[in-house]
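Morning run. Coffee first, then this:
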Amino acid sequence: MNNWVDGIQNAIAYIEDNLTEKLEIKDIASEAYVSEFHFQRIFSALCGFTVSEYIRNRRLTLAAEELSLSDARVIDVAMKYGYDSHDSFTRAFTKFHGVSPKAAKEKGAHLKSVAPLRISLTLKGGTMMDYRIVEKEAFTIMGKSKLFNIETSYEEIPEWWKEHYQTGGGKIVKGMFGACLDNDGKSFDYLIADLYLPWNNIPDGYITRIIPAGTWAVFPYKGKCPKALQDVNTQIWTEWLPNCKEYKLAGNYNLEVYLDPKYGEIWVPIQKI
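And here it is:
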């Protein structure tokens, strides 16, 4: 995508300029010219940690510098960097630095530091990524839905699949699709779903969703889930999208398509630039 990396760097600069202010994901994502839903997934894939983790770590880094280099009161520093109480700040600070805020003011205290991010793309050799561009008509899926936080979904969704089968859900929905549908930019609805057959009844506790017609980038993966799928998903955000010059992201949703125990696809909605 044109200036895609510049957009992410703009978002990081916005975070750095506003670390003592209230930061909203929607405002940060707007600096990168992508939706909240896509920004958080791209950021995590590129950086290896979530947006909120980065903000927290940068604030605690600056708080430690301020405490160690000045006579500022702990409560004043806590309030400056977004903590509403002495206790909550002390817990977060101690977990991050390994020492309390009070101890950080002592000479020679060992403190941790997270530097501001600088995003750059480097060539790592001729990694080949298979994909195809397809046009699809609208279709309807039927399944069971659960709300997930974008930042913890990698760990939680595989557990929900296990629960689905352990509780007999596989007799109703085999799980051809794992559908990620944006909810509010911070969380998304995830459906374990199959194609909806309109002549069948919809069981209690299950829902239908229409997937709009459009253009999709389809990426195959081979191997055992969830690792094989998550590895390809990371490649999409860190390799394919930054280098794609013809398409940009479209809707705030994507699909995992499970065709075989060790083969499936990730479908990402796109449109021509």
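The chain is about 40% helix and 25% strand. Good start to the day.
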